[in-house]
Design goal:
With 239 residues, this protein is an alpha+beta fold. It folds into 2 domains: 64 residues, Orthogonal Bundle (Arc Repressor Mutant, subunit A); 153 residues, Chorismate lyase (3-Layer(aba) Sandwich). The strands form 2 sheets. The chain has a 6-stranded antiparallel sheet with strand order 3-4-5-8-7-6. It has a two-stranded antiparallel ribbon with strand order 1-2. A hairpin with a 4-residue loop joins strand 7 and strand 8. The longest helix is centred in the N-terminal third of the chain and has 15 residues. The radius of gyration is 19 Å and the shape is elongated. The two termini are 15 Å apart.
Length: 239
């Protein structure tokens, strides 16, 4: 094991045991050099490894912070790196995916949304509410928020197709990881209409997600409400 891997493992243990709680700023690079008796290059390699694992994020002008990882997720990256993170369209490859757009535009960030996206409260963010359909059948209602400082140029045509494809192919951004929490719930009356549930007693699986680029920037906060009979959770756990 290389020294930078040993340092990354030690910091990961401190994140797991609470020495470095969520949203805590890690010591600065020079301090890390002293703590681990390592060069700046070695420390940077350790930090990049932790970024790749989805455990820390770099905030411009502020430093390096521990991500707000859900309990139990620090040593099991599975849900955040499941195949479904490639985007709904890719997950349904070979089938016809379309979108019914219910709302699309700028919206002031609530306190919760601002905290998730790491933007100022009441800052304008891009808001998208849409139902995703596969072969004409509704599968999921998505409520998506994105920052507007580097996520730019999104049009209704993009929203109707694949946002992730636009981010990667048109904006040249590299999607790295996501932190997700899944829970069961009952659909709202509006969601029953959008998901064509009608009078059935059918729950939805809600997936709350904060997604990151490879440079640690948060590019999305979303809540997806899936029809329980049309959703499969795919996960690969990494030790």
């Amino acid at each position: 094991m290389y020294k930078y891997e040993m340092i990354a493992e030690e910091i990961q243990k401190k994140i797991k045991d609470g020495t470095y709680p969520p949203d805590t700023r890690l010591p600065q690079e020079m301090e890390m050099c002293k703590i681990y008796d390592a060069s700046r290059i070695t420390i940077r390699e350790a930090m990049e490894l932790l970024v790749a694992k989805g455990l820390i994020t770099k905030r411009r002008g502020a430093g390096t912070f521990v991500k707000a990882v859900a309990p139990g997720m620090t040593d099991q990256v599975g849900f955040s790196k499941s195949g479904q993170f490639s985007g709904f369209s890719k997950d349904q490859a070979g089938r016809k995916v379309s979108s019914d757009v219910h709302e699309f535009g700028l919206k002031k960030a609530s306190k919760e949304v601002a905290e998730k996206l790491q933007v100022a409260e009441n800052a304008f963010v891009c808001y998208i509410c849409r139902t995703r359909l596969v072969d004409g059948k509704p599968y999921v209602v998505e409520y998506t928020y994105m920052p507007t400082d580097f996520i730019t140029g999104i049009t209704e045509d993009v929203v109707k197709s694949s946002i992730y494809s636009y981010l990667e192919n048109d904006l040249g951004l590299k999607i790295q990881s996501a932190h997700r929490i899944a829970r069961a719930d009952m659909p709202t009356e509006q969601e029953k209409k959008w998901l064509d549930i009608g009078d059935q007693v059918l729950p939805v699986l809600e997936v709350e997600q904060v997604a990151y680029l490879d440079d640690g920037r948060i590019f999305e906060y979303s809540i997806s409400r899936h029809r329980a009979d049309r959703f499969e959770l795919k996960s690969v756990s990494i030790h």
